[in-house]
Amino acid sequence: MNAAEDIAVASEDRLRADLYNFLGLMLSGPPDQLLLNQCAGLSGDDSPMGQAIAGLSRVAKASKPVKVESEFNALFVGLGRGELLPYASYYLTGFLNEKPLATLRSDMAARAMTRAPNVYEPEDNIASLMEMMAGMIVGRFGPAATLDDQKTFFNKHIAPWAALFFADLEAAKNSILYASLGAVGREFMDIEREAFRMSA
After folding, report:
1. Most exposed among 23, 115, 125, 184, judged by the fewest C-beta atoms under 10 Å?
2. How far apart are CA 12 and CA 107, in angstroms?
3. Overall domain count for the chain
């Protein structure tokens, strides 16, 4: 493999990590005006992913931080609980803090990943998992994870439920900006699943 091929693979992985980070950032809290402006500046092509990104851009242009904060709270916080519970344990077992969380914590420890001290959410929330995947790709937790290690983590902790969560986000009654983010996330999960399947 020559240096040009190395650079091409690295840039593709960087783009994947950037998209995982973006999803994690948007799902960890309501976006401020700067992040909404960045969303509004995105453009897409005619592919399903490109159309999803263009849709997110259109909605972001018409969105204001105060409205998006209300939307975020209705979806994920609510009175008692939000419309959606964005946790692997809940999606896979119907309960919070179940075996999927324990399995994830064990895998995190093996990869030297730790929860940030100012984060109180269980680690199996969708935002954290997106950030973990990004960190593994670019080597935030030590050496960059091999494709096989990324595939193992994805198939174990993300593939069984994330696409369903993103589809639920698209369809949620309180979802406007987050409906378009759900479309981006769902398309990305499909792309990742297929790419990992083809890498076998």
Report:
1. 115
2. 25
3. 1
Domain span including residue 131: 3-198
Residues found in the chain: 200
Span 15-70, pLDDT tens digits: 999 999 999 999 999 999 999 999 999 999 999 999 999 999 999 999 999 999 99
8 A C-beta contact, residue 183 and residue 170: yes
DSSP helix/strand/coil, 17: helix
Dig out the tokens for 187 from the structure. Answer: 């398309």
Positive or negative: CA dihedral 161, 166, 170, 176: positive
The domain that holds 65 is classified in CATH as 1.10.3480.10
For 59-91, give one letter per residue: b (16+ CB within 10 A) or e. Answer: bbeebeeeebeebbebbbeeeeebbbbbbbbbb
